[in-house]
Amino acid sequence: MPVSAKQIVATTALAATLTLLNAVPAAAQATAVNLDQFDGRWFETIRSPNDVQKPCSRAQIDFTPQGRADRYQISVACTRQSDGKVETLRANARITDTTTNAKFRFSLAGLLSFGGLAGQNYWVWDHAPDYSWAIMGLPNKSDWWVWTRSATPSDAIRTRTVARARALGFDTDSVVHTGR
């Protein structure tokens, strides 16, 4: 059956459109974070390699609202690889973009906080519609983490979230799987 010029043009246009869609970078960050669904316990299951967390084999994060709508307490319990002991780090967080609720500034709690001056910005780059997972990262994408509600997510969730992190522009050539 001969192919018409219209069919060739339509097929070429469709192929070009699909190519362009695949080349467009993924959304810069989650467009909205429902804080009522984001609150609570998370487990770090995948992360980029970083020196601060190098000895950590498992991390549990509690994200707890404080007295003000834009303030949170963060408690991170890290299980050390060497001896299984748990170290806990406490931080305060405030929302820096109340339009999306996707940008936070974390600062250490207590004496190491230097009055809140010593801190780091973190963004929620994406999350599952049901908040079963979230991809957190630094604004410059140098470090990133996958948080899940389950301490032991399936391999399918791990694969899907790493692929999503890659699509968002994070370096996924070497990842650390925690919580296994």
Task: Summarize the helices and strands and which ones pair or pack.
Layout: H1 5-23, H2 35-38, E1 40-47, E2 56-65, E3 71-80, E4 86-95, E5 103-108, E6 119-127, E7 133-137, E8 144-148, H3 155-167, E9 176-177
Antiparallel strand pairs: 1-2, 1-8, 1-9, 2-3, 3-4, 4-5, 5-6, 6-7, 7-8
For the terminal residues, how far apart are their CA atoms?
A: 56 Å
Which stretches are poorly predicted, pLDDT < 50 over at least 5 residues? 3-27
What summary fits the major beta sheet? 8 strands, antiparallel, barrel
Structural class: alpha+beta
Rg of Cα set: 20 Å
- Helix fraction? 10-25%
Average pLDDT: 80
Physical arrangement of strands within the biggest beta sheet: 1-2-3-4-5-6-7-8
Task: Report the count of strand segments.
Answer: 9
Order of helices and strands: HHEEEEEEEEHE
- Percentage of β-strand residues: 35-45%
Give the CA-based shape: globular
Number of helices: 3
